Amino acid sequence: MSALPSPEPAPDATEADASEAETPGSAARKPVRRRMSGPARRRRIEDAALAVFSAKGYGAASMGEIAEAAGVTRSVLYEHFATKRVLFLTVLGTQNAALVAHMGTAITGRGGRRTRMRATVAAYFDFAEANPTARRLLFDQTDEGDPELSAVRWGIRQTRTRAVMAMMAHDTERAGLDPRSSDAEVLIELLISSLDGVAQWWAHHPDTPRATLETMAAGVLWSGLEGLNPRRDPAE
Amino acid sequence: MSALPSPEPAPDATEADASEAETPGSAARKPVRRRMSGPARRRRIEDAALAVFSAKGYGAASMGEIAEAAGVTRSVLYEHFATKRVLFLTVLGTQNAALVAHMGTAITGRGGRRTRMRATVAAYFDFAEANPTARRLLFDQTDEGDPELSAVRWGIRQTRTRAVMAMMAHDTERAGLDPRSSDAEVLIELLISSLDGVAQWWAHHPDTPRATLETMAAGVLWSGLEGLNPRRDPAE
DNA sequence: GATCGAACCGACAGCAGTGTCGGTTATCGC
DNA sequence: GCGATAACCGACACTGCTGTCGGTTCGATC
């Protein structure tokens, strides 16, 4: 019998505590707030869910494990999210939005085409390094024959691809492709999945310096894109 | 009560029937052999398992569903494979061997480098088109936090990558890389995952003609590889 | 300090899946 | 034809998970 339920099992502190968890006025160090406000607890649950879903996939993740990671019992989860599925979709949407926002600034940034290619590659590896769990959740193919989840996931992928297509329209056009053709779409799919493949590999070889990956990926993809239309002169 | 268990629910006939299912001597059309020989049934089970595991992933696939697809009850599965896990690993190994064998002939075939690159790309799309289920099983990241399965899967991936590295050693060297360096490894990972990314996309856009994909992928990857070492002259 | 909302908990019902076991019957060798 | 091997089945015990419910106690407000 472990008697006292121990205020909080030291949940790694996802950062400074959530928004309104600490009343900033009373400076008197309440060491841990046993009972959090609704929104704060909700944030914690989403963080925990991201971790567990990312590690196990949707099916193998259990609400019990998520609850434990969030420092709470299962019942509490159901007060914030109607079902496991709703929780999953919420997390998925949030993380995807974060990714798209993160990438956008790099792709459409200033600088020459080659510079932006390098920046784009760097931005993706940035994201993969800073949010390895989110990367897995978004890219690893863990549909379990569930039609709805599969559809949602492909919707997200499609949105992502289209966004990159739009952002790189100028570049694909310069490579001699109609930027809205399926040729261009295939090209973008190739770019994205090659980057993610390298990121996957990186996650298992964390000692490899980032510069190695970036240089290699940016080099290959740059030459590959450039070589598509050998007629054009290489002037920027 | 559905009375007669119905000889066989017409399991799509995976091809001409399994090896020894039909005694070739007695030409007298026994329409369906109700009770198959051990090895024949085992083959059917493996085929069914491939389909179900591929569609659902390891965790979400149930022995009941595999049994049904194999035209048999669950108990029979356990007479051929000790556990679900053993069945899964068996199928995984078989399919991976098939893939490596299939790719090998294309990569190390005759012809110039550019020709072989195109042949390699074509070989992969061949495989993806002919064995979509095997492709999913081998490439889609469906580890569910299971340490053993995860290890096995990465072992397979590593083996595959090393094999391709060896087969393309001449090409990577010509591109200015040490063919056993981690640079080369990253390059190969990039090649493989970009191809598979396109194959994934293709599976959702089956109307796209193969030539489109092949030309695009081979073009980008060829230029990308070639552009890595701009110092070399392009003589074959 | 009394009151009220809501954050939290333990327990329950129901379901789906795995692996096991004893019994049944098709099919092959004699 | 007859017996033995083994392919096959139905049922069972057990486990783990989801979603629900009634009750408890923290903490903010008046």
From TrEMBL, chains A, B:
UniProt keyword annotations, A-Z: DNA-binding, Transcription, Transcription regulation
Biased composition (Basic residues): 30-41
Domain HTH tetR-type: 39-99
Superkingdom of origin: Bacteria
Pfam families, per the entry: TetR_C_46 (PF21943), TetR_N (PF00440)
Residue stretches of biased makeup (Pro residues): 1-10
DNA-binding region(s), chain positions: 62-81
Region span, Disordered: 1-41
UniProt protein name: TetR/AcrR family transcriptional regulator
Source organism of the structure: Yinghuangia aomiensis
